[in-house]
Amino acid sequence: MTRKQRRLTLIGSAGAVLAVALGLILFALNDQIVFFQSPTDITQSTMPAGQRIRLGGLVEENSVVRSDNAQVSFRVTDMANTVAVTYTGILPDLFREGQGVVTEGIIGPDGVFMADSVLAKHDENYMPKEVAEALKDQGHWQGGEETANQ
Amino acid sequence: MIVEFGHYALVLAFAMTLVQSVVPLWGALTKDERLMAVAAPVSVVMFLLVLMSFVVLTISYLNSDFSVLNVLENSHSAKPLLYKFTGVWGNHEGSMLLWVLILVFFGALVGAFGGNLPSDLKATTLAVQGWVSAGFILFLLATSNPFNRVVNPPLEGADLNPILQDIGLAIHPPLLYIGYVGFSITFSFAVAALILGRIDAAWARWVRPWTLLAWCFLTLGIAMGSYWAYYELGWGGWWFWDPVENASFMPWLAGTALLHSAIVMEKREALKVWTVLLAIFTFSLSLLGTFLVRSGVLTSVHAFATDPARGVFILTLLCLFVGGSLALYAWRAPMLKQGGIFAPISREGGLVLNNLFLTAATAAVFVGTLYPLALDVVTGEKISVGAPFFNLTFGPLMVPLLIAVPFGPVLSWKRGDLLAAAQRLYAAMGLALLLTLFTFWLWGMEKVLAPLGVGLAVWVMAGAVSEIVTRVKFFEIGPKRGFARLVGLPGSAWGTALAHFGVGVTVLGIVTASAFQEERIETMRPGDTVDLAGYQVTFDGAAPRRGPNFTEEVGHFTIRQGGVHVADLDPSKRVYTARQMPTTEAGIHTIGFSQLYLSMGEGRGDGAVDVRVYFKPLITLIWIGCVIMSLGALFSMADRRLRVGAPKPAAKRKTASLAAAE
Q1: How many domains does chain B have?
Q2: What is the predicted pLDDT for the residue at B629?
């Protein structure tokens, strides 16, 4: 094998691996990413059923209902619209009525959002960043601009 | 008063970094030995100064001195002593001070023990380390000063985030930082080589122990962080592909590639230009990780109070160091001379393949981590890239790499024989095939990928063992002489085998814990029993309890197997009083390498609680494998040929005596 052939083999295999990686990344980006939506986005748009989304907003006061087998239902609101959510499992420690939440799942045929994960990670303002920004868009956000005050 | 000493020491350290950044480099360029000699003592003094300010901050925490803003915001007088101590780095300012402490510590190590380095290389390396130190100490002083005072100090502090009040905080950040920041030395060596325009096998020999050290700690740090998240967050997951995890995983992947390409450079003088580029990339990814975690662009446990000025400052540093080093690379790299050539099927070829897949995997993680941020900035659209993306991209890239791993060490340098290599691995192949079939028989066809994954893991483990066995010709020469030769194997051979074995162990843990995990979520009342994986879990009831700075509701569970008592578990829900913040403490029982994992949800008021029970087969192998990998790195570091400045003749004598022994 000449030096040139060796170099070509190297470049060829590098190209092949990179092409595969690029293909995988593009395919996965097309298929596996999940869009963040507010309750208003969901009520206004007609989404194909079965599409995975992230729903974020505030947990409506007095909306949490627990039933047996660790089933929970609650409503997520952005003060303009609300979406009903069901979830089976243990809610995160920081899940509370009136505070921010992000859930991921699909919308069922009856319009109820079936979540398979619920996140209540947040910063000092008890609000996931996406939720805070979505609420700002709706004009329902007071304060919170100040950082953790000293 | 003592607080001002700490502050002053940090300012002095900054002044020292300026000396360090300029004087030795000037000396190296003008060939002035006296100017170059400045580097070593200054690097040690710098370390002592930063150490002093770190000790001062620690004392303020131990004394609960609430006149220091940082202590006030992150501590509480009722906090247990251990957490007062670890709380020093449980906040933004303190953790950056630890970051800088480790940075200057590595500089001081090179200064103190780099006596056998060529003086210009040592001086330039320390100067580059000085630039990085100057940037980050300035960052501390300008935007994140831990020594700021409060005029009218309140009597009580705001307490540390309860999730961080755990032994994990004592271990995870220091380990991770030694790894992260340790790559700065490799970076400084690479930039120094570019400035001096000279790079050779000796350079690789100096750089490899530092890379190994950093990699070893980073591996442990990531594993520790993963285990901490697993037991502390109460979700039963051990890796979430969270951007913050990826931030530490990317330097690990690039660092792994760097370790391997440095071998080629050391042994065969090839891949020089590529190795230098990898060294730059690895530390750049560390810096990127610091930016992601510390700037507050991400919401997570790791993002402490956010302040836009900090993000901008780190971003500027990031652009300066990454941009500067890459520009230097573009300018100087073509001047580096290329070394030996090799056939595609050879040890070098195998290591190149390793690098290809690892860098491609790094790129996939990079895209998945940064794409959502970039999209948000450009279009304002908010998306999340989660586990499915990474499973689809990272997974397939790892499979061919893992298949190739056992071949690498049994191929010969320069030109290898694939068939001969495969013959040495027949036993490993057979064992892997056998266990694949066994898993199929055990579980049937319902999970097709899992038995293949088990086979792959066994293949990597058995491959590592057979490499060692065939290398000493254990079965040909009989066990007695075989053992003697096993002991006499160079540390780097043991290192390779151990590290590869560890990879196999981790993969086995990942495959079994994800594919064969069993999970039940139930609402349980006292007396209820749940059956899972052959165990009966009975809920006996819950009772309140008081801790030093929290109150908790502790559940009591009894675990039986076929009526025989196995263990009692007490998972709990805590509320930390100072912040009124709830946390979940999981109850974990280890059976062999597997674990039963219990976590409770909020009570229903009528004595019923939501309970999540998992059985995670062989899950501890995930972390045990990481520990084995780090052990491998330690063995490699102990290899005398790699020890910084091991004299050449000694190595020759060793091989000669080995030959004589045969």
Answers
A1: 4
A2: 97
Profile chain B (662 residues) by mean pLDDT over runs of 10 residues: 92 96 94 92 96 96 91 88 90 93 95 88 95 96 91 84 81 92 95 89 86 95 92 82 90 96 86 91 94 72 61 89 93 78 84 93 93 84 85 93 92 83 89 92 82 95 91 78 83 92 97 91 90 92 88 92 91 86 88 92 79 93 97 88 47 41 38
Question: Rounded to whole angstroms, how far apart are CA atoms B568 and B609?
Answer: 17
Both B322 and B182 in one domain: the answer is yes
Which of the 8 DSSP states describes residue A47? P
B386 CB neighbours in chain A (<8 A) are 32, 34, 104
Tokens, residue B37? 């000699």
- Please state the pTM of the whole predicted model: 0.90
**Contacts of residue A8 in chain B, CB cutoff 8 Å?**
none
Residue B433 identity: L
Which residue of B lies nearest to A148 if distances are taken between CA atoms?
A: B305
- Give the chain B residue whose CA is nearest to the CA of A14: B356
CA pseudo-torsion sign B137, B139, B144, B148: positive
Which amino acid makes up residue B39? A
Q: CA of A144, closest CA in chain B: separation in Å?
A: 13
Residue B29 within a domain = yes
Tell me if B346 is assigned to some domain. Answer: no
Domain of residue B542 covers 518-616
Interchain CB contact of A89 with B (< 8 Å)? yes
Q: Report yes or no: B118 at the A interface, CB cutoff 8 Å.
A: no
Report DSSP state, residue A130: H
* Selection from B647, B634, B626 nearest residue B221 by Cα: B626
Chain A residue numbers with beta carbons less than 8 Å from the beta carbon of B599 are: 90
Residue matched to tokens 């990879």? B503
Residue B580 inside a domain? The answer is yes
Contact A90 B599 (CB under 8 A): yes
Please list every residue in chain B whose beta carbon sits closer than 8 Å to the beta carbon of residue A90.
Answer: 234, 521, 599-601, 610-612
Residue B201 forms contact with A (CB below 8 Å): no
Over the stretch B350-363, which tens digit does the pLDDT of each residue have? 899 999 999 999 99
* Residue indicated by tokens 């573009």: B330
Nearest by CB: A28 against B299, B389, B601: B389
**Residues B595 and B649 both lie in one domain:** no
- Residue B400 placed within a domain: no
Is the minimum CB–CB distance between B338 and chain A shorter than 8 Å? no
B505 plus B635 within the same structural domain: yes
What pLDDT does B302 receive?
54
- On whether the CB atoms of residues B13 and B54 are closer than 8 A, the answer is no
Structure token digits, residue B36: 């170059």
Nearest to B358 by CA among B257, B208, B491: B257
State which amino acid sits at residue B525.
R
